Amino acid sequence: MPAMPIDVTIIGGGMIVHDQVLPSIYHLQRLGRVGDLSVVATRTKRLRDLFSERFTDAFPGQSFKAYPPMDMPDDAHAPNLWKEVVAYMRPGNLVVVATPDELHNDMVTFALEHDQHVLCVKPLVHKYEQAAAIERLALERGLFVGVEYHKRFDRRSLEARGLYQQGRFGEFKCGEAKLVEPYVYRHSNFQNWFTKDKTDPFTYIGCHYVDLVYFITGLKPTEVSVRGVEGVFPNGNAAHLWAIGTVTFENGALLSVLTGLGYPDRGAGSNDQGICMFCEAPAPGSGQGRGLEAEQGSGSIIRHDDQFRGVSHGYVDDASGKHFGFINPDYFRLVPWDGDGLKPVGYGYDSIEANVEAASRVASCGDDLAARRAMIKQIDDRGLIATPANSSINELVVEAARLSVTHDGARVGIAYGEQPGVAML
């Protein structure tokens, strides 16, 4: 059944909406896959950047319904306007939740209760029970919920997943990941929500790489320990500005994850990130492998440098913030194409496209609840798009991480089975 165009409401007007979500949705709209488009934020100030030359040049003639209206004063505050906008939507369309983590559960649940499909930025929620409740509600109503873990759609990740499943790397044993965002984030809206009592760098960005190891290997995490480095934002709010976590997987493998808000603003990259996974061939005598490796075993490696992908530019001006910088053409770029304006490319766009089209496929089943549920199960089972049913390990890891970081790095175990949960060890 062909996917039908779907109306989209984006909740949030921050960085991820500006950099990835809105331009992706705009392109899908001009391709005829998205119908009406609305964006709702708490203040018009958050929406003004979404009417900049970046968007008018790349997507000429396109716009969105703004809530609050753009003629409202900048200081007008409408924290619950999103509820009115979502409640007004026709059933069976799509709500994109692109807000701070602590708001996700209420927003996703509200959208589902009003019969809307949902795409939520990562992490979905901070507690497993919340994710399980979302999964049950969505399946009951035959609604799609996707979680935007865009690193899954990086071709490097897809290649590694396919080869790992073929046994080409053996078994993951030990690795390290790093994701350090720019120092300047400390002077942004982060200082109003990225506070010690609500989140930490491991929870916010480290979850990307924990999810990626699970995505590639299928191994479930069983233990988490996270230690944070405390600091203070310019507005005086206390926060964990750095964190290091250690994740143990079901086969005993270990992953170290370094995260923070501190990459030099004048550094060549926009951040510092990457992952290295060391693996081992099957034990000798297993009958697997070829030649000497089959007799003695061997090591293997998966290394992704996600900061520098072989492209660097030196400019005659500093319009982009620096004269020289590393360029990542693989995540998200607006480039010339055989059409008006510019076209988004990269795994950031691919991820949004895959989630929107998944919601459209489910919506195309119309009033046939059984067919919608069958389509959702098919998406869950395929495992490419993160959903509450196939990626709840992330909520367990986040819940364990928050418990650990608030107890000075204590070891927290993860249990599965009939009643998954976390507990101090």
Protein described:
The chain is α/β, with parallel strands linked by helices. The protein has 2 domains: 6-151 and 334-389, NAD(P)-binding Rossmann-like Domain (Rossmann fold, 3-Layer(aba) Sandwich); 155-263 and 272-306 and 398-405, Dihydrodipicolinate Reductase, domain 2. Helix content is 33%, strand content 27%. Strands 12-11-7-10-9-8-17-18 form an 8-stranded mixed sheet. Strand 9 and strand 10 form a beta hairpin. Helix 1 (15-30) crosses helix 11 (347-363) and helix 9 packs antiparallel against helix 13. The termini are far apart.
Write the layout of secondary structure elements.
Blueprint: E1 6-11, H1 15-30, E2 34-40, H2 44-48, H3 53-58, E3 65-67, H4 81-88, E4 94-97, H5 104-113, E5 117-121, H6 128-141, E6 145-148, H7 155-165, E7 171-182, H8 190-193, H9 201-217, E8 221-232, E9 238-249, E10 254-263, E11 272-280, H10 291-296, E12 299-305, E13 312-314, E14 324-326, E15 333-336, E16 342-345, H11 347-363, H12 369-382, H13 393-405, E17 412-415, E18 421-424
Parallel strand pairs: 1-2, 1-4, 2-3, 4-5, 5-6, 7-10
Antiparallel strand pairs: 7-11, 8-9, 8-17, 9-10, 11-12, 13-14, 15-16, 17-18
Helix pairs in contact: 1-11, 5-6, 7-9, 9-13, 11-12
